[in-house]
Amino acid sequence: MKRDIKVTTSHHQKIGFGGGCHWCTEAVFQSLSGVTKVEQGWLASFDEHDSLSEGVIVHFDSQKLPLEALITIHLATHSSTSNHSMRSKYRSTIYYFSEHQAQQAENCITKVQADINKMIITQVLAFNRFKENSEKYRNYYYSNPDKPFCQTVIQPKLDKLMSHYGVYTNKKKLNSQ
């Protein structure tokens, strides 16, 4: 039996990011216009990168928020140049879902690297699997904005987001906190 396959072009994409605490990463991407969903938990790639590390999967509308902007924001809002002792738990990574995304990520890292003195250690890896965090830890910042961790660790990242990438932020959401 022959099936008709409908080919559609969608501006709705997803990409994975790891870098720091998934609560921080989640809050950064939840604060952007054009992001439709953020899944928070642990991600893994293949081979020597098949262990899970904290991260998020970001669903976004590429017409409203270009992938290059997402990647640039990711590199700027975590320690993308620091190879600290917690890197196995907080892998600095971009998890791609297509070869096109992989190439865009590599190009963006090269472009950002040209403007900074420290070496970017962020890896571009194929997405393999995801384990979502339990519900009580999801949407952590927007459910608990007054908690000390949110104020001392996450809020400075959101302040940087507003000051450097304000054009991409959801100001209404950020100002409601």
Over all CA atoms, what is the radius of gyration? Answer: 16 Å
- Mean pLDDT over the full residue set: 90
User: How much helix is in the residues?
Assistant: 25-40%
- Major sheet size, sense and barrel closure: 6 strands, mixed
Order of helices and strands: EHEEHEHEEHHH
Query: Ranges with pLDDT <50 over ≥5 residues?
Result: 1-8
Helix/strand/pairing category: alpha+beta
**What count of helical segments does DSSP give?**
6
How many β-strand runs?
A: 6
State the end-to-end distance. Answer: 56 Å
**What is the molecular shape?**
globular
Cross-sheet strand order for the largest sheet? 5-4-1-3-2-6
Q: How large is the share of residues in beta strands?
A: 15-25%
What does this 3D model show about the protein?
The structure is a single chain. This protein is an alpha+beta fold and 177 residues long. It has six helices and six strands. The longest helix is centred in the C-terminal third of the chain and has 18 residues, at 148-165. The protein is globular, with a radius of gyration of 16 Å. It starts with 11 loop residues before the first strand and ends with a helix. Mean pLDDT is 90; it is low at 1-8.
